[in-house]
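We append the chain.
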Amino acid sequence: MGKVQWVPWWWVAAGVAGLLAIGTAVPLSPAAWAAGLAYLTASSLLLTRGLRRRRAERFGPANAVTATRSVLAGIVTALVVASFGGPTATALLVTLVAVALLLDGVDGIVARRTGSESELGARFDMEVDAYLLLVLCVYDARYVGWWVLAIGVLRYAFVVAGFLLPWMRRTLPPRYWRKVVTAACGVALAVVAARVLPPAADVLIAVAALVLVLESFGRDVLWLLRVNRDRSRLVSLEKASTTSPQEESR
């Protein structure tokens, strides 16, 4: 294994150091430690596998920024789990989420300016975004209802649908609106977590975030349906080889 493929594990070490530091101020239960470490380990395993499969020669500054966001997501995971059995460190949790959201706007800029854009980096960024939204949904469910989990689950439902329906695995065209929706949902869920607004306002903000996510995923599904439908209308190679031009024109 090349040296670059060991780099993700330095961020696991950073995450453990972060959990130890957080643990001095906020009691972290064994379950919280287990959840945080499980995420950090799983994300690093997947990233290492991606680096190996692509035979990457360097980790890249943009991936370093995304990995830092991933570490923050791991710490936030531990805080969310700890909040279900002990005091809630709301200010600390929201601060870490805010930093992660700000860095989400940095990694793309770093990738473009350093020429380190890659398919793996984009996928890594997307998965960290999706996971952070899911964790925030779990935390916010106690305030606005468990229906808010739909915001975080939609991404994973989309992936499962791809395993069941081959036409759902087609590569989607780039669309900046997806990043806008993800960022807006992150901010909305962070605001709900902060508990600075009346309960009714929190519900309205969460509903607005859900509508945005449904619109974004719905647009992608419609695009895939249209492409699959158009593809099904194409004449097969076998039929094309046995059909004369006169028959095709009828």
About this structure: The radius of gyration is 22 Å. The longest helix spans residues 199-233. Confidence is low (pLDDT under 50) at residues 235-250.
